[in-house]
Task: structure prediction
Amino acid sequence: MSIDVSRRAAVATVTLQRPEKRNALTLSMLRDMCSVLESIAEDDAIRVVVLDGAGQSFCVGADVTEFIGHDANSARRVWIAVGHRVTAALAAMPQPTVARIHGHAIGGGLELALACDFRVATLDAVLGLPEVGIGTLPGWGGTARLAAAVGPVRAKEMVLLSQTVSGSDAQLAGLVTSAASAADLDAAVDTIVERLASQPAVAVQLAKKVMSAATAASYQLETFESLAGALSVSTEDLHEGVAAFRDKRTPHFKGR
Result:
């Protein structure tokens, strides 16, 4: 299975298991994630959930090779819809969630992290939503969640200019809860996890639900993102952007 789940007392760790591809997300992984999160959400013995990525990176986002294989209709009905189910499920988890970010958290990877309640990153981690740079856009709720985290001005700068930030800068911007050296990452995560696990579970879950409800309306983006994503799939610029990404060259966009 591409998603691993481990338990330590009342803490469940969900790990993306595709390290050879820096945990690039496929539809199969997204569907596995939905099943895993549903099971954890129903387990009263689990009080905190940690989201992690195996290997050198948290997650570099969508598997570009698989994404580019979708036409406009399947991008709208399948790819974007399934990704939204995952980020929505993460955001709706009754238990508080903590993203353990190392290496890269890019595109859909950052969208997964943004759907978590807490984000802890290494100082040198690389975070961003650079999809515009290859001719598409964030498709799994990242636009609204990023703006909620860092404000609309900074979010537009990151998305429209395809800018990435380091873990240390992400902490200053409010994008991550805390940043630590690679050697201290586990300790920084454990500090939050242990405090959450020691809190009264019912009060924590109710407080999370109330706070989430206050901002939920701005995250109802699936309709808009599915239409925009479907439109971008049909453009020549997207295919040029993906080809340039694969070839490690500068893309030559034509605006069509």
Q: What stands out?
A: Strands lie at 3-8, 11-16, 48-53, 97-101, 104-106, 118-122, 126-128, 164-166, 178-180.
